[in-house]
Specification:
The chain is α+β, with helices and mostly antiparallel strands. The chain folds into five domains: about 140 residues, no CATH class; about 80 residues, no CATH class; about 70 residues; about 120 residues, no CATH class; about 80 residues, no CATH class. It has 24 helices and eleven strands. The chain has a five-stranded mixed β-sheet with strand order 7-8-9-10-11, with helices on one face.
Length: about 525
């Protein structure tokens, strides 16, 4: 692995200039490395972070990757990581013209990392440096604690997919609101719920407060409540009690709850385990937005490499070569899902809708197909809209907002089914549906969606950790349940109970499958698991 030579780095810097002129926004500094396919195989299990801590699973994945490469040799064009500065890796046998296309693709990824709100918690961090510090700490603990370090890592990683990533995106609206928490309590809770006053009094009080704002500006709230104490002398005591009750944040996840409340980890001899849980959790949360924005991120990068490279004079003489490479990357898969293809076409679709003014409510009322196709208000706001898309959307919101029947018809998309052909002894694929709801459901089902597991604090004690699974139509993978609960039992230092829902198929009177839903609780105690119906 080595840095780009000066000539190739110069090409990258020119690509940066053209990308910025087109509106992309990213940091000035970046690091680019040339790597071999062997390097790619060895770095991939570490998510291309060379400084990530060592773990035995990584070694297994490296061996697996080498075996796959021997069976199916390939040249990965690039990989980019969300770090400060951004780091990207390029195959060492890419020609210059191909690197130009890839540089544009990578720069769009960097722009996405540094501007999409789902990555907000990573904007000020040097994760590569933090990963190195974590790696050194784990190596130090291995020297002190031996193989127990890897057991704790394994137990922690078995539950790191439920770290409740969205808590990181939580925003305290009261912090920046014009209306303070005290005013919010007075108007919405105290008057309406506790005093049960009529609407007219509430409106009069709001009008009175607005009068103080006009006459006293920033002092309005202070003066307003100083007069209020003569009318409602009990207000301050009730507000204090209410705020203490409602400001107790329960925005925890399973890993953080165990780290903060486990009696076993609180023992002096086990405190070192807390550091490992924190490392696993922080690492998982750092990479969490990438899996939730895969389609949009790749679509954004594909859109820009296509638009920027085809307008770059350095493409001259390589148009056919580029067309072939680009088609392999962005062609629609009739079976399966190509995130590059769907993401690219959704970005283009949003731009087209915005340019023609089709986000207007009046357009949604048109049912005639020809009129819908002819509708065009020439707003030319498409570029602005896709930058908004890049900043605020994830895969889930992108798919559920913009995949409609027009999109399906435009690209001739469909849901594929498969059945066994007994005569030929093969599997036949067929068009199962062309309805946008079915296609949307197919993609949504493929998205990352970990189970929601909450701690029932009423039933949890020092001896027992009680967990509840919020059933969302899919049951847990029970093959892995015993191993995960066994790890949780170790980390808690006592038995673990998990309440969940099972789906049982039954035959109906017409021989069709019916489904019965049973609420059950699994108990892991002394490394043995038991099941009981509730």
């Amino acid at each position: 692995m080595e840095l780009l030579n000066q000539n190739t780095k110069k090409i990258m810097e020119e690509c940066k200039s053209r990308a910025r002129d087109a509106g992309l926004c990213f940091g000035d500094s970046s690091l680019e490395y040339l790597v071999t396919n062997k390097d790619m195989t060895e770095l991939s299990p570490k998510l291309m972070i060379p400084t990530l801590y060592n773990y035995w699973v990584n070694d297994v994945e490296v061996l697996k990757g080498k075996g796959l490469y021997e069976a199916y040799p390939n040249n990965p064009f690039e990989t980019v990581i969300n770090s400060r500065p951004a780091i990207s890796f390029y195959n060492d046998n890419n020609p210059d013209w191909l690197n130009i296309m890839i540089f544009y693709h990578v720069l769009a990824h960097i722009d996405f990392f540094q501007n999409n709100r789902f990555f907000k918690h990573t904007w000020n961090d040097d994760f590569v440096g933090q990963a190195l510090a974590d790696k050194r700490l784990i190596e130090q603990l291995r020297g002190e604690q031996g193989r127990w370090v890897d057991y704790v890592i394994e137990f922690a990683r078995s539950i790191d997919n439920i770290t409740n990533f969205y808590n990181l995106l939580h925003y305290d609206y009261n912090k920046d609101r014009d209306v303070s928490l005290r005013l919010n309590y007075y108007f919405e809770v105290f008057l309406q719920q506790e005093k049960k006053t009529g609407e007219s009094l509430v409106f009069n009080e709001i009008e009175r407060y607005n009068g103080f704002v006009e006459s006293h500006g920033a002092l309005a709230e202070s003066i307003f409540f100083s007069e209020l104490k003569d009318i409602y002398p009990e207000f301050n005591a009730l507000f204090t009690k209410w705020s203490e009750k409602n400001n107790k944040s329960k925005r925890f996840d399973l890993l953080s709850y165990i780290n903060d409340h486990s009696p076993f980890l609180a023992k002096q001899k086990n405190i070192w385990m807390k550091e490992i849980l924190a490392i696993v959790r922080n690492t998982a949360n750092y990479f969490a937005p990438q899996i939730r924005t895969k389609i949009l991120n790749e679509g954004w990068a594909s859109y820009w490499h296509d638009n920027l490279f085809t307008a770059d004079p350095r493409i001259a003489g390589h148009e056919v070569d580029y067309a072939l490479v680009n088609a392999k990357v962005t062609s629609i898969s009739r079976v399966g899902l190509n995130p590059y293809a769907i993401g690219l076409r959704l970005v283009e679709y949003v731009k087209e809708l915005s340019n023609k003014g089709k986000f207007d409510y009046r357009y949604s009322l048109i049912t005639n197909v020809e009129n819908r196709l002819a509708y065009n208000k020439n707003t030319n706001q498409g570029t602005e809209s896709i930058f908004k898309l890049r900043s605020d959307f994830s895969d889930f919101s992108l798919i559920n907002t913009f995949i409609d029947q027009d999109f399906i018809d435009k690209h001739e998309l469909f849901v594929t089914g498969k059945r066994i052909n007994k005569q030929e002894n093969v599997i036949d694929y067929y068009v199962k549906s062309r309805n946008y709801k079915d296609y949307k459901r197919m993609i949504t089902d493929s998205l990352y969606h970990p189970p929601k597991i909450d701690v029932d604090e009423q039933k949890t004690s020092e001896e027992t950790l009680y967990l509840t699974h919020l059933f969302e139509g899919k049951q847990l993978v029970f093959d892995d349940l015993a191993d995960v609960l066994r790890g949780l039992e170790f980390l808690w230092g006592g038995e673990v109970q998990l309440e969940t829902t099972e789906i049982h198929a039954m035959k109906g009177s017409d021989n069709k499958n019916l489904f019965d839903y049973k609420r059950v609780v699994y108990t892991m105690s002394k490394k043995k698991i038991k099941r009981a119906e509730l």
